[in-house]
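chain below, 129 aa
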Amino acid sequence: MTKSEIIEAIALSDVPPGSKLAEYKVGDLNVSQFSGANAMGAMKLLMARQIVDELTAETVEFPDTPNTDLLQRLYEAFLNYNTNLLISSTMESVDDEIKMSHCHMVLRLRDISKRLNIPFTEPDDNILT
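prediction:
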């Protein structure tokens, strides 16, 4: 796996299978549409895009070949991202969703670490406690 593939796998870890996001242009604007049974999946796809952008920016100085330092930095980056979401959240149900998403990210990173046989030290994670 490359760094980009790892980032994408982490970002998509909480997106339900079969999720779709309808997008179209209105003039110069890109409009995303989600409703009905697929609404949550579509919203999670939008969040996954933001997470990909954040993790990519946070690891720009790392090589494309995964290593211990990369996995540790990815964990720290999505921990910071999700912590900031929780700090700004004002609804308990949103908090629960952020925590669940974070758990999925942690599990995906642990799985990747195991499959690639790249151990890393997890930071203190105030979201998991």
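DSSP finds four helices and two strands in the chain. The mean pLDDT is 90.
thats it, cya
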